[in-house]
Design brief:
Keywords: Cell membrane, Membrane, Transmembrane, Transmembrane helix, Transport. It is a multi-pass membrane protein. This is ABC transporter permease. It comes from Salarchaeum japonicum. Helices cover about 75% and strands about 0% of the residues. It contains twelve helices and two strands, in the order H-H-H-H-E-E-H-H-H-H-H-H-H-H. It is an all-alpha fold and about 325 residues long. The chain has one domain: MetI-like (MetI-like fold, Orthogonal Bundle). It is elongated, with a radius of gyration of 24 Å. A two-stranded antiparallel sheet has the order 1-2.
Length: about 325
């Protein structure tokens, strides 16, 4: 029994060994890119900010400057610029209702990361399998059907389509993610299809077919491991695109206002009319949106250089 268990463990190690070697090689090449490391550092900092938000934020989201018994003169002083203990502690100032900007910024990172990662993952889960199937069954009715759907969706303008879908289904975070995914999976499918078309002509795939391997086995054992690294590149790009799209929707008023987000902060300052007077309210959320989107783009750009060295200039 022990020998049998050891044999199974040994087989598992043998199967995982190529993945382990590939990961180490990819990580080593990735760390040679300053842009990729900068993106990874920014992304890590924002992830830590979202995880430890209750410990980093100086106040809760319900906190208001001057408290509930604020006088008319105190309310008239809002939005208040940064204050460090006199008359209250708000390192990035407050909005027009007295809520701390820094607190909203910290908790808003959760919404941004959730939307970015969820939309990126869903885009990959839809686009990558469809791209593999379309490429493997090229020039068949399956391929034609998938490509016609892609062509139709590509013909529709992105932001108006997302706005219509959110308006019809409701302005919840889940519906915003699904609306973004409706079109963001298209690039995944097209690029993966092209990669699979190339892989299908490789000798190892032809050898697997000749040995009698099923289509599912060939796709799972030979195609997916070769296209998976490329899918991570587009996952990072889709995440960045989703973050920018959600911020645009929030600024236009199509967002879930029950969840604090950086886009909602920008929309609120525009509605209140303090865009040109409350810099401490305007700049931080815009800067955080740019940093988070850039971090995903930097990581995706570096991964693309690792996966496709020929793309480097």
């Amino acid at each position: 029994m022990a020998a049998k268990d050891y044999s199974r463990m040994d087989q598992l190690r043998d199967r995982l060994k190529p993945w382990k070697i590939g990961f180490k090689r990819t990580w080593g090449q990735f760390t040679e890119s300053p842009v990729g490391l900068i993106g990874l550092v920014i992304l890590t900092v924002i992830i830590l900010m979202s995880v430890f938000a209750p410990y980093i934020a100086p106040h809760s989201l319900e906190w208001r400057a001057y408290g509930d018994g604020a006088t008319f003169e105190q309310m008239a002083s809002l939005p208040h610029p940064p204050a460090f203990g006199d008359p209250f502690f708000a390192p990035l100032g407050t909005d027009s209702l007295g809520h701390g900007i820094f607190t909203q910024l910290v908790y808003g990172s959760r919404t941004a990361l959730f939307i970015g990662l969820a939309a990126g993952l869903l885009s990959s889960l839809v686009g990558v399998p469809l791209g593999i199937i379309s490429g493997y069954y090229a020039n068949t009715w399956i391929d034609e059907g998938i490509q016609r759907v892609v062509d139709i969706l590509y013909a529709l303008p992105f932001l108006p389509l997302v706005i219509v879908l959110v308006f019809v289904r409701g302005m919840s975070t889940t519906n915003i993610i699904l609306a973004i995914v409706v079109k963001s999976w298209l690039n995944n499918a097209i690029v993966i299809r092209g990669q699979v078309l190339s892989l299908s002509e490789r000798p190892f795939v032809e050898a697997a077919r000749a040995s009698g391997a099923s289509d599912f086995r060939i796709m799972f054992r030979h195609i997916i491991p070769n296209v998976l690294p490329l899918s991570f590149v587009y996952l990072a790009q889709d995440a960045a695109f989703a973050i920018l799209t959600q911020a645009s929707l929030a600024f236009l008023g199509f967002s879930d206002f029950t969840n604090i987000s950086w886009g909602v902060m920008l929309q609120w300052i525009q509605v209140e009319g303090y865009v040109y007077t409350a810099w401490w309210w305007l700049i931080p959320p815009g800067l955080m949106i740019a940093l988070l989107a850039a971090s995903f783009y930097f990581v995706g750009y570096s991964l693309e250089d690792v996966m496709n060295p020929g793309s480097q200039s």
